[in-house]
Automatic annotation (TrEMBL), chain A:
One of its GO terms (cellular component) is endoplasmic reticulum membrane. This is ER membrane protein complex subunit 4. Keywords: Endoplasmic reticulum, Membrane, Transmembrane, Transmembrane helix. It comes from Ramazzottius varieornatus. It is a multi-pass membrane protein.
From TrEMBL, chain B:
It is a single-pass type I membrane protein. GO terms for cellular component: EMC complex. Component of the ER membrane protein complex (EMC). This is ER membrane protein complex subunit 1. Keywords: Endoplasmic reticulum, Glycoprotein, Membrane, Signal, Transmembrane, Transmembrane helix. GO terms for biological process: protein folding in endoplasmic reticulum. Its main location: endoplasmic reticulum. Residues 758-963 form the ER membrane protein complex subunit 1 C-terminal domain. The chain crosses the membrane at residues 933-954. It comes from Ramazzottius varieornatus. Belongs to the EMC1 family. Residues 27-421 form the EMC1 first beta-propeller domain. It comes from the Eukaryota.
Amino acid sequence: MPVSTTAKYSASMGKPSTKKTAGASEKIINSSVVVRPEKLFQVSYRPGVNRSDLPPPIGYNPNVVYSSESVTRSQDTTGLIEKRSWDIAMAPLKQVPMNFFVMWMSGNAISLFPIMMLVMMFWKPVQAIIGAQSTFKQISGKWAPIQKLVYLFGNVVALSVALYKCHSMGLLPTEPSDWLSFEKPLERTEFLAGGRI
Amino acid sequence: MDSQLRSLLNVISCLIVLCSLAKVIQAIHEDQIGLHDWSLQFIGRPIEVLLSASQSGASRSLVYTYTEQNVLAAIDVNYGEIAWRQVFENNANGTISSAVTVGEEICVLLNRGRSLRCYDSLTGAFKWEKWFGGKSGNSGSCVGITKTTESPKDANRIVCANSDGMYAVNTKTKNTLWDVRSPNILKRYAFASHSGELVVVGINQDKLTIKRLSSETGEAKENDIERSVSIDPLRSECRLVQPASQVSPFVICYNAAQRQLLSQSSGESSREPHLISVHELGEFPVEGKNVSLQNLETDGLFSLSAGGVSLLLQIHPNGEIKLVQRFVGSVTSCSGTEVLALEVANKRATLGTAAFDSRGFTTVSLTSEPFSFPSAYGNAQRAVFIPRKDSSCAKPSVLFWSDSDVIGYFTQGKILWQRDEALSTIETAAIVDLPISDIEALVEQEFEEKGSFIVRFTKRLLSQALQLKKFAEVIVRRLQAGLRTGKFFQKDQLERDYFNTHKIIVGITGKGKIVGMDSRNGNILYSLQAENLVSPKDRPVQFYLQRTGAHAPFPSQAVIVGVDKKTGDGVLFFFDCVTGEELGPAVRMNRPILQSGLIPVMTNDHLEAIFVLDEDLNVEIHPALDSAETAEFLTRTLHIFYTDPRTGVTRGFRVKRMNQGWKAVELWNSTLVSHGESVVAVAPKRPHDAVHSQGKVLADRRVLYKYINPNLVAVVVEGLDDVKKPYLKMVGMDGITGRVLISQTYRRARGPCQLIHAENWLMLSYWNEKVRQSEINVVEMYRGFDKPNKTYFSSLESHEKPNISTASFRLPGFVDAMKDSVTVEGITYKDIIVALSSGSIMRIPKFLLDPRRPMIPTQAEREEGLIPYAPELPMVTENIINYYKKAYRIRGMVTEVAGLESLSLVFAFGLDLCFTRVTPSALFDVLSDSFDYWILSVVMLVLTVASVIVRNLANAKALKHAWK
């Protein structure tokens, strides 16, 4: 009864009027469980008829397993992982020229915009270093240790670029003038008193 | 119709908005005047009191006086307030030789008798001036003659006589009616006799000339009377006294040089002058100054008074002078037949009248109950009877003034008001901290770290209990006072406030009078007199604060160093500058003193010591420091220097212990003046000069280190060069070694000079003859870019010379006094407070007076914040710190720190007093006045409530959403 089966199929699928079924079908589609199609199409009209006796529907070969995708993935997965790991590891370094450009754009004046830029420039690598563990989970392969090192190095470079920006903006206390207010006045060893008479 | 009405309404509403804005703008500063500042105006010590010629229609009863400070003033006798005043120049040109009231005018003779200036007697408005011209004479005298007839020819006129001649001026038309030129007389007096004729007395060395003229035409009536008598024109005083109605008046002169009285008839030329020595008449003080001769207008009575003693004298028709009575006090005439005497004895004064009849001078009847005349007043100098509706000889109204320059008004049996004019003669002043309140003192004790843990803990508990008790006491006291006076929120007097801005101002006059004033309002808290103490010649009394009020059980202690009035020896007077009590007897030295100063050593009872160097180079230390340790410290560190302006020699000493005392050992001396030069200013560094920053940061972030030498002394010398042009020379030398560190010369510049020495700069104000303007020159000293490699500064080890940068700035005005603002830590920028002779006190930010200001600033200099150089200092009206309340003849200023870093208190003293505060870097450490606490708290509250409500609402909404 292929006709009736399709009718049932269409009846069960094409019934969006009630909310519940729509929700259920959504659930089915959303969950990535591999649903075997025979289950969907399994309809019995008569109790006496054995299901397996029925011929499969047209175009359905029960011997073929629906896993061609996973098969292809497993084929060139190592190359991709390596590539992706390198991408992750190199990302901070790739950011450096951009940082330089932003730095040049924002100028050395101490105002809100450059300060915000500076804070971002500091915050990003610091955040990256703090969250390095989770990033490292994504890195695997034979180059992993070097990639991790490169990743850390990139962040350190970003930090030092930010520091350099700080320096060029004059925010680092590197000159004696920055410590001037801590300098004590010279103690006097002699006392003088007097004036005109 | 409707649209027209609407547009009209629009216009009106716009106008209303504009008007309200205008009001707002007007009130930006005006409401703050007098909030933190006050000023007091004075007139000085009166020379003479004049009564108004006509006061018809005047709503106020004014008396006029001209004073030793060259001020002409009208005083309202009902309140003792100055109705108006005119302040004249502070030199011989401004000295008032004579003043007269005629009609509605009061006229003064100025410019050494060469110009007559008239003012409206009611308002003080200037009316006209007459320039007589002539050479610069000594002085002159005027007499006002009121018209007697209504004829148009007769008019109110003033007749003045100066050393060049006699002049009559019509006060209405301002025309000269007549003038008689007869020079070669040193001093002239003009009098009008009862008969209406003019008597002019001319005095030359050893010659007395009496002229009689008609006041209408100036024609001589009779031949002049000339007598050769030994008389000093500059130290004599003459009056015209009429012994009896039919007798021609007598000229009576007091010759201060010989202490003689001379009488000469102005009518009978044949009569020889009578001469009588004052000591033959009665006991009279020897003091030559302030002798006054008064005509009492009654039966030939006149009085001679000085030093609080008056001789009531009478001239007989035959020219003989006799003593009637001697008073300790003063005498004045009150009616045609009676005189009024103010007598002072045992701090009480009595007023009595004496009648004079045919039998002679009789009963002195008391007209008033004795009233209190405090010893701080000193002797009664003069008393003037004020004729008023409600006063008579029996119930007199008397204006008096005393030795210590107190002007008082006695009426209706009591002193109605008094003015302490001594405040206009303050020479030295200081702003002194008040003691901390009892509770705060306890808090301070609480945290003293002494003893073990348990001891400290119990101490803490105890002190907190005590604090609680004290607090309760304060509350009770306040409640009691509140119930009594009705004011519950009155602050306790004489207690430090939170930001330590409430202080005591101590002012010391040249006569040794010490006045303590409340810095909040200028009220006099105490006034005491240091007996026989006066300021040394050419310099003010020295004041040293030895202990502040912060050391609870001990009183605050200050000392003033002056000289004895009679002997000229040094006197040290100790007093508590918070309460005004004398602390122990004054220390009288047996020698004149050269120098005094504070020693950086404190005794166990928190008393800072002072030293006094006398002429024999003995050093006396008060209180005595005997411990070997201090002796060793002083010998090692204490150095003394002095500059003698007469010789121009500066000498430096160190101290050495000898036997029981100390001796000064000369280390160096240097003569900074050559022929014709004189020292005009000496400025050592302030003992506690807080400098926060040790250098200046340049644009390239290098540090230009300041040259801060605490022992630097600046000396300014004035002289004339080869072409008779004046110049000034400023020398900066090390006071320990005498080494000259800097030297500057100012061509075509002359004094008066004001010199400030602070931080690493010197500031000198002078008059530039070339541009005819006042200038301020700034010299800044820097040591360079190298960091000092030591942590101490020793003049003996330091061989560096400072790098100097200097610039001059022009000031639109004449500088009377100049001072820099001070703050606790020296973090705040400095302001230069300049008192101008125009009466304004102006603050000039130090960054304007920066010698590093470039002509054309480079990028780096602009980054550093240097503004381009401009020689003119702007006169910004917002920077005038006494607004429109002019303070004239400022002699000096004191600046003092407050508890806030941003605040500096300023007290200016001179003829007027002015107290205010400056904030050179604005009030950076407190919230501004406009900060709205109400809005802030309301907003906070609303936000909190709103967030609570919104949270609940949000919860409810989330719940509802979940149920869907």
